[in-house]
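Render this sequence as a predicted structure.
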Amino acid sequence: MNVRGKTLRGNFIHAPQASSVEALTDCLLAVDGSGRIAAIYPVDHAEREPAENAARQAGNLVEFGEADFLVPGLIDLHVHAPQYPQLGLALDEPLEVWLEKYTFPLESRYADPEFARQCYSQLVDDLLRNGTTTAAYFGTVHQEATRILADICIEKGQRALVGKVAMDNPDSCPDDYRDRSAEESVSGTRALIDYIRGHPGNRENRVLPVVTPRFIPSCTDAALAGLGALAAECGCHIQTHCSESDWAHAHVLDRHGMTDAASLDRFRLLGRRTILAHATRLEEADWKRLCVRGSAIAHCPLSNAYFGDAVFPLRAALARGVHVGLGTDISGGPTASVLESARMAMAASRILQSGADPDRAPGDRNRPNSAIDFQTAFHLATSAGGTALDLPIGRFEVGYRFDALRIDAAAPDGTIRLFGTTDAISVLQKIVHTASRPNIADVWVDGVRV
């Protein structure tokens, strides 16, 4: 059921700030004809009753059940779309081996448009079923395949950022899978930007282009400089990797004599709409630089466990004022669920706080005040992702897009067990920790059921 132009009555839960959940119990929320939230009437609002009566008389009132809880759609800040076929495979290798032996050969197969169409269609379907209403996608170097990914997101109604991966460095990229020059990296990126912005089915700009240098090791300096200039010219989002592992971090230090973040900044690739994946090796000056630029980090706790060589200091990043959201990092992370990433974010933060080496004394093996709670994890999966992308999504506020999920806490095949729990905050805790795909009953993007 599409809800554009409808007034909804039910239980809404969102987290506009970290560790601050707002439960709008038995609330009235109006969605306008474009899918934007037009009005919110809590139960004690003076205009609640006349608004509800008017909607009922017009036949536009949609009422949800007691076991239904509406939450903002989940936002995945880091997805390698072409890697979906290898989800759950080859996770026992170091990052550089994983890329060369498994990932690059797989991504090269997207020269075949039919292969691309099959894989991308399955990916977008699965992410929507998992409640991911917005995804930031890395594509491949292939122009046609990446256009197909954008087409599929537009067709299926997912909000997305789609980027053609730029990688032209012959020293780090396979001969049969790379851009042939820096000029090709930049011109191919520009061509995709023009395609997405001029797409006749994308008039509402639900799908956005994103400048996507894979990471510094895969790009020549000329490509990085050209992409930075292009991003400044077109005003696009930027996505890349930053200090993902010891190897990647050391590569940039050796090559440029500075950290990843400093080098990206030098090439004009750090800005308010930049998303940096991982960032497990940031130094003090890097943190300050990200705050000044307003850039965001896609925290990928599951893939960090396999490839990051460290636990990302999430709570410290938030305390510094850095924008942080969540990413699955398909397929470096072996799940397509943002909720699973949220759960791992909580677990990793607790490991960092309590320490991992039992042979060390408690005061010597831990980082105090590192743990986050379920409320912060929920915030990261929703509102924080919207803030990171500088888009009006991720919360229930007037003027924001109605991207939302209906969680059926009583779904027979679901995994939420309430045992009489009715308090909305307690229910949310169960949702964050135990919800699964059968509990996700409806998914809306811009008020359209997808």
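Summary. The first strand starts at residue 7 and ends at 17. The first helix runs from residue 48 to 57.
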